[in-house]
C-alpha cells in the first residue's frame, strides 16, 4: 500500500500532503521545492516575503512582489513538482500578491486569514490583462462548512467560478487561527468534526461544478495514522506545517528549529496577535513581556496587514516574526502547532515523508483499506 494521490483538477500530487505555508520566511523556495520533489505540494508563504530585500523599508510593496516572483522562480528551477503560494487575505498587498503569483505561474494559491471573496475576480482580471488562460488553482482556507458555502456562493454569483479545493483548518493549527478564543479548546470545533461538515457542504458544489472539489484537512495532523484517519473522514489530503519546520530544508534559522526540538507541552500558548486574531505560539520572554504591559515602540514601515492598528499594538508582528525566523527569539517568537512538543529531531523532508508513509501503511495493514476520494 502507498499513499493515494491528491488530485486538484489536472494537478496530481502523488503524496496527499500539502506543506502549510508558514510566514514570515519559514517556508520559502527551499522547503517548498523539497516537498514538491517528494510528490507533495510545496507552499511558499507570501507574508513579508520581501524581508531580505534591500528596499523593503522604503518600498515594501515592490520588495515583496519582487521576492515572491524570485522565490517561485527558484522553486521552479529546483523541482518539476507542484508549487503553491499562501497569501493571507489580511495582507494590504493581497490583490497585488495574487496577481504576481498567477503571473509567475504558481500552481495553487491557498488563501485564508479572512474570506478570499475577491480571489476569482483577481484571477479573471489577470487572465484578461495578459490575454492568457492561467491555470493557477484557487483554494480557500476555511474553518467551517458555513464559510465554505458562503465563499462558494459569492464566487459563483460574481464570477461563475467555484473553488478548486478547500483547506479546512482546525483549532490545533499553528499561527493565526480562524476561531474565537473560547472555541479553540472546545471539542465541538475539533477537526474530526469539521472535516465531515465541510465534505458535506462541498458535495452540492461538486454537482454544480461537474468535478471533484477535494477537501484538505489541516491543524494538528502529525502522523501517518492521522493522515489515514482524516482520509477516512472524507478528506482527500492533509496539510502539515509544524513537522516541516524540523527539517533540514526548512528556510528558518537553526535556532528557530531548535526551539521546536526543545518545546514542552506547557510552552505552547495562545496569544492575541496584532493582526486581530488569536494565534498559537511558543511562549518566551518576549511574549510574557507583552502580556505584562510591555511595549516595543515602533514606527510602522511595512504596512503589511490591513487589520493591524499601530496605535493599539504593543509590537510590530512583522518585525517580531522576522527576528524569530533569523533566530533572534529574544526579539520575537515562533508560531507553532499544538503538537510541537512531539518534535524531537531535525530530519530531511525525504525522511519525514517516508516515515509518514510507513506509519500510514502500518495503520492500513492493521485495519481496513484506506478510502480513496476522487
β-strand number: 13
Described by strand count, sense and barrel closure, the largest sheet is: 8 strands, parallel
The helix/strand order is EEEHEHEHEHEHEEHEHEHHEEHHH
Q: What name is given to the CATH topology of the largest domain? A: TIM Barrel
Overall radius of gyration: 19 Å
| Reported CATH architecture of the largest domain | Alpha-Beta Barrel
Beta-strand content estimate? 5-15%
Question: Alpha-carbon distance between the termini?
Answer: 18 Å
Number of helices: 12
**Overall structural domain count:** 2
CATH superfamily of the largest domain: Aldolase class I
What is the strand and helix layout of this fold?
Blueprint: E1 6-8, E2 11-13, E3 17-19, H1 29-37, E4 41-45, H2 60-78, E5 82-86, H3 94-103, E6 108-111, H4 119-130, E7 137-142, H5 145-159, E8 166-169, E9 175-176, H6 191-209, E10 215-218, H7 224-232, E11 237-240, H8 242-245, H9 254-262, E12 268-272, E13 278-282, H10 285-291, H11 317-325, H12 349-366
Parallel strand pairs: 3-11, 4-5, 5-6, 6-7, 7-8, 8-10, 10-11
Antiparallel strand pairs: 1-2, 9-13, 12-13
Helix pairs in contact: 1-2, 2-3, 3-4, 5-6, 7-12
